Structures are given as structure tokens and as C-alpha cells.
Amino acid sequence: MKHVAVLMGGWSAEREVSLSSGEACVEALKRCGYTVSAVDVTQNIAAVLEQIKPDVCFNALHGRYGEDGLIQGVLEIMGIPYTHSGVLASSLAMDKPVAKTLFAAVGIRCAEGRIFTRKEIMDGASYPKPFVIKPLNEGSSVGVTILLENENRSLVDIPWTFGSEVLIETYIPGREIQVAVMGDHALGAVEIRPLGRFYDYEAKYTSGKAEHLVPAPLPNDRYEEVLELALRAHQALGCRGVSRTDFRFNDTGDGSGDFYILETNTQPGMTALSLVPGIAANSGIGFEELVRWMVEDASCDR
After folding, report:
1. Which of 129, 154, 170 is the last residue of a domain?
2. Lowest CB count within 10 Å: 6, 60, 193, 295, which one?
3. 126 or 82: whose pLDDT is higher?
4. 174 burial class (0-12, 13-18, 19+ CB within 10 angstroms)?
5. Cα–Cα distances in Å, from 241 out to 41, 117, 291?
6. 40 by DSSP, 3-state: which?
7. DSSP string over 103-126
8. Which of helix, strand or coil describes residue 295?
């Protein structure tokens, strides 16, 4: 049986979530019969992998350095097959403005927006409300802030610790729909109904903060439409393995409306509250079967 190194932790803003994902995957892979090494990733990861010599790396890292193409590059150099997307797809997906350009090129609707420098904001730049403020390259809604029309705050009032540039997008009202893709087909969709303002970091990883409706309660034709859009996004980026693509459904109340893509996540969470395992389970794929498939699907780009 293969020796699998589960890469988790790291030093991004999503370290704790990655540890939870990694621990769940370690236990599931052990139950599948694999030899498993849990690796809390540090900057000496190449030396650690050279010492333990795994057959496959299960990439359970989240956030920067883990899902932006960097760890994938290390594994490519070492020739160790790994789960999820490769170097280029990971980098493209993590860079929100670049990903939006690719999505638009294949006909997927995106929210309008633009990049502001911190200097522009401090000099009084503005954007019409309601809008969403996002880091250019973080995941799990880290750093995301929404300003609605009736709020007195402006761009300059938002604390910012995520670099010299920010992405500002027009806020899309409606429902949160997320789709899991596994290989070359979409598994299904879930609707998220957060109890707070939006599906933020706390809602994603705290029990009772959001309701998950699987499958998403959409008309059949709209359900199939959002599955097709997610698969198109997965393929436009060049993803492999498992991904999750997030949409806003601008529902007008009669079941009509448009889907707007938010992002594609190449390293979706694998915790007890995570969406991909829930979607997979609704499709008849248990957690152990899911992680086994991911290990057997692991590869290098070259």
C-alpha cells in the first residue's frame, strides 16, 4: 500500500483550518489502509520529504504557500505526485483578478470591480456602494469586508493588512451556491444560508453559523446550469483533482436571475463542516472513498 504524506498546517492565515482538514484526512487514509505520515509544513519541507520518502503527498494546506502554486512547485521538482491542482492552475486560481479575466473569457459572469492601491484609497478614492473588499490572494473569506448602501464607512475606514493593493467588487445580492467538481464532472451543489451578513471565515468553520442545503434548492435547469459553469471554471484554470467553485445567484424571487462566479478554490476544506465532503456524500461518495480517489488521482504536471 502507498505511503502518503499529508501536508497540513503551514504558516498562512488558514493554518488552523488546514490542521483540521489534515487530521481528518490522516485518519480516513489510515482507515483505507495507507501508510500515513502527518507533516506540519515548515520552510524545510523538502528536507522532511527527502527523509520520509512518501509515494504521494496529500495536499491539505490552505491559503498562501499551500494552494498558490508554491508547494506544488517544490513537489514537481522532487517528482512526488500530489493531490489537487498543479502549479499553474493553483497560481491562477489564487490570483483573483487573473482568475476573473479567465472566467470572463469563457463566458462566466463576474462581478464588476477594480484594483485599488492603498495610496489611492488614502488619497480619497471611492467606489459606489454596496461593494465587497477582498485581498488579491487569500482564501476562506480571509480579509473580506462588505459595505452596504446604508453604512457610513468608506474605503479609508477599513483596516487593511493584506498588501498594497485591494480588489473592490460590486456586491451581488442573492443566494450563495457552491459546486464541487471531481475530475471531469461536477458532483453537485450546495446552498449556504449564513446566519450573519455573509459566509465569512467564522461561518465557514464554526458549527451553527450557517445552514447547508444539499442539494441546492434550485429549479432543475438552473441547477444543471451552475454545475456546468463550475466545470467550465475548473477547466478554464486547468484544475485537476477536486475543486470547489463559489457563486452568487442573483435571485429575483421568481426563480430567475443570474449566476456570478466568486472564485474557484483548488484546495477545498476537508473538515467536518466542509462543503465538498457533504456534496460528495449526497452523491453517494463517502469521506474515505473521496480521499482514496484523491490519492489515486495524484500526479505531477510533468
Report:
1. 170
2. 193
3. 82
4. middle
5. 21, 35, 11
6. strand
7. HHHTT--B--EEEEEHHHHHTT--
8. helix
101 and 189 belong to one structural domain: yes
User: Rounded CA gap, 259 and 250, in Å?
Assistant: 6
Q: pLDDT tens digit string along 90-116?
A: 999 999 899 999 999 999 999 999 888
Using the CB atoms, write b or e for 181-205: b if 16+ within 10 Å: bbeeebbbbbbbeeeeebbbbebbb
Q: Which three cell numbers stand for residue 212?
A: 447547508
Contact 300, 75 (CB under 8 A): yes
**pLDDT digits over 17-51, tens only?**
999 999 999 999 999 999 999 999 999 999 999 99
What pairs with residue 110 in β-bridges? 261
How do beta strands 3-8 and 56-59 pair? parallel
Identify each DSSP E strand in the chain by its residue range.
3-8, 35-40, 56-59, 113-117, 131-134, 145-147, 165-170, 175-182, 185-194, 210-213, 242-251, 257-265
**Average pLDDT of the chain to the nearest whole number:** 89
Record the cell numbers describing residue 111, joined without a space.
Answer: 462581478
Q: How many domains does the chain have?
A: 3
Phi-psi region of 151 (alpha: psi -120 to 50; beta: other; left: phi over 0): beta
Domain boundary among 155, 170, 185: 170
Binned at pLDDT 50, 70 and 90, residue 201 comes out as very low
Q: Which residue is associated with the grid cell 483573483?
A: 96
**∠223-25-93 over CA atoms, to 5°?**
50
Contact 10, 19 (CB under 8 A): no
Residues 6+ positions from 216 with CB-CB distance below 8 Å: 177, 188, 189, 190, 191, 223, 226
- What tens digit of pLDDT does each residue of 260-292 get? 999 999 999 998 778 999 999 999 999 999 999
Domain residues for the domain of 48 are: 3-84
Backbone angles phi, psi at 8, to 5 degrees: -150, 175
* Residue 209: per-residue pLDDT: 65
- Residue 44 inside a domain? The answer is yes
